[in-house]
């Protein structure tokens, strides 16, 4: 049972103070922690269980990204223009990101390169430059090749990462995967969400999340404290559904007086799709690291990117664990990032029958599975909705990890606790579908 393995759930007195920052025991890293990480990320048989049957049942492609769109401000003017890059991912047109020392920007002195924004990222110890590049790709390639080797890998497109609730490619899946919003006036699900249960940790935690804004007034957050910061530089439309849902799942499993720090980075692409630029993700991660959080939840996915990998590796060295959604692009899709990075815990979703979510990514990078199909969580209507996707499974593991860290104060022990507590699913041992197993 998870309660026994963690020894941190049950009817235990709630602390009277909010969660203070802790310094995880990571001395002589990479000793034990590296060994644990290598075990967690050890390549497994990448043959996807039941892939052929899934392909037979699927009526539409199992892997496709949404079309690029132009995001407009409230006055109708264009704010962001997405494009499809040659590698098939979304990015902001003509925008690139450089993470480097302040003096390194001189290496990009060219009339076709304009610095749009610059920020110092304390958590990474580098400057981040958002660049507008009007040069053609041939010239840009020549400029890049002229840079020192270390700068070449730190210059990248301003990619777009997508939230992982349902699947934005096909909005009909949202109807198939999610139950309607609960609206009965005789039922108060928000009050039920606020009640502690046996899955609630007994020690207050500090948890970070990268998401949309959270509707803080929801009753589900009455027992915790929510602090938010917006990182969108332009007045873009966004709703609070996704962030409120993710935070609601965290709140169900966090002790009273826990703290949630939310970096709001998503802009609204449609009613079921949100996008976040790489530049905003880096700013959000920097902010959360400064809050000394125990863990960071990232219910989003996108392309592999060396700049993001380096940023996450730097945060990892500070003792902060990142937990990410495995992706909703289907079992035939390639690995999704940041979930597939070595420093990150990747979480997939299962339904109430413990069957894998139909649209969940699969692969050797999957670490754990958790409920993520039609799960009830907080909604900005002051009631609840049922949401699906690996976005909804990730915060369950984030809460479990934060609790384990508070009790063990050792990252290696916390990760081992999750592994030992997981319920083996699918093939015996770790597999490409469920990872080590299910944490309910």
UniProtKB/TrEMBL annotation:
UniProt key word Lipoprotein: no
Positions of the UniProt region annotated as Disordered: 168-193
An MF annotation (GO) of this entry: serine-type endopeptidase activity
Membership in a protein family: Belongs to the peptidase S8 family.
Domain Peptidase S8/S53 as annotated: residue spans: 207-437
SUPFAM superfamilies: Subtilisin-like (SSF52743)
Signal sequence residues: none
Active-site residues, record numbering mapped to chain: 211, 242, 391
Xref: InterPro entries: Peptidase_S8/S53_dom, Peptidase_S8/S53_dom_sf, Peptidase_S8_Ser-AS, Peptidase_S8_subtilisin-like, Peptidase_S8_subtilisin-rel
Coiled-coil annotated residue ranges, if any: none
GO biological process: proteolysis
Organism superkingdom: Bacteria
Protein name per the record: Peptidase S8/S53 domain-containing protein
Keywords, alphabetical: Hydrolase, Protease, Serine protease
């Amino acid at each position: 049972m998870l309660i026994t393995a963690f020894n941190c759930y049950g009817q235990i007195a709630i602390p009277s103070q909010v969660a203070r920052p802790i310094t995880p025991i990571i001395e002589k890293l990479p000793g034990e922690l590296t060994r644990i990480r290598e075990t967690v990320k050890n390549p497994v048989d990448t043959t996807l269980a039941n892939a052929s049957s899934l392909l037979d049942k699927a009526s539409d492609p199992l892997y496709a990204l949404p079309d690029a769109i132009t995001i407009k401000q409230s006055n109708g003017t264009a704010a962001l223009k997405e494009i499809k890059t040659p590698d098939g991912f979304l990015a902001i047109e003509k925008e690139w990101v450089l993470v480097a020392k302040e003096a390194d920007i001189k290496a990009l002195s060219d009339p076709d390169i304009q610095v749009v924004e610059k920020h110092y990222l304390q958590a990474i110890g580098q400057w981040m430059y958002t660049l507008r590049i009007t040069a053609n790709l041939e010239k840009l390639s020549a400029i890049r090749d002229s840079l020192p080797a270390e700068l070449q890998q730190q210059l990248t497109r301003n990619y777009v990462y997508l939230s992982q609730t349902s699947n934005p490619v096909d909005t009909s899946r949202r109807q198939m995967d999610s139950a309607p919003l609960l609206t009965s006036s005789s039922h108060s699900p928000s009050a039920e969400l606020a009640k502690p249960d046996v899955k609630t940790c007994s020690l207050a935690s500090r948890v970070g999340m990268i998401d949309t804004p959270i509707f803080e007034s929801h009753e589900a957050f009455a027992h915790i404290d929510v602090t938010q910061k917006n990182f969108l530089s332009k007045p873009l439309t966004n709703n609070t559904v996704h962030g409120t849902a993710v935070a609601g799942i965290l709140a169900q499993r966090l002790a009273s007086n826990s703290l949630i720090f939310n970096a709001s980075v998503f802009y609204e692409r449609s009613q079921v799709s949100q996008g976040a630029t790489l530049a905003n993700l880096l700013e959000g991660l920097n902010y959360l690291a400064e809050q000394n959080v125990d863990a960071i939840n990232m219910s989003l996915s996108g392309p592999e990117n060396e700049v993001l990998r380096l940023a996450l590796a730097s945060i990892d060295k500070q003792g902060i664990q990142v937990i990410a959604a495995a992706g909703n692009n289907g079992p035939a899709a390639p690995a999704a990032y940041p979930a597939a990075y070595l420093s990150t815990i990747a979480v997939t979703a299962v339904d109430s029958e413990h069957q894998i979510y139909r649209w969940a990514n699969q692969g050797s990078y999957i670490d754990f599975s958790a409920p993520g199909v039609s799960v009830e969580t907080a909604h900005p209507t002051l009631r609840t909705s049922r949401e699906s996707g690996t976005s909804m499974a990730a915060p369950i593991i984030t809460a479990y990890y934060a609790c384990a860290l508070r009790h063990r104060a050792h990252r290696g022990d916390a990760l081992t606790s999750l592994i030992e507590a997981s319920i083996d699913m699918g093939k015996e041992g770790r597999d490409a579908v469920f990872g080590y197993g299910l944490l309910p």
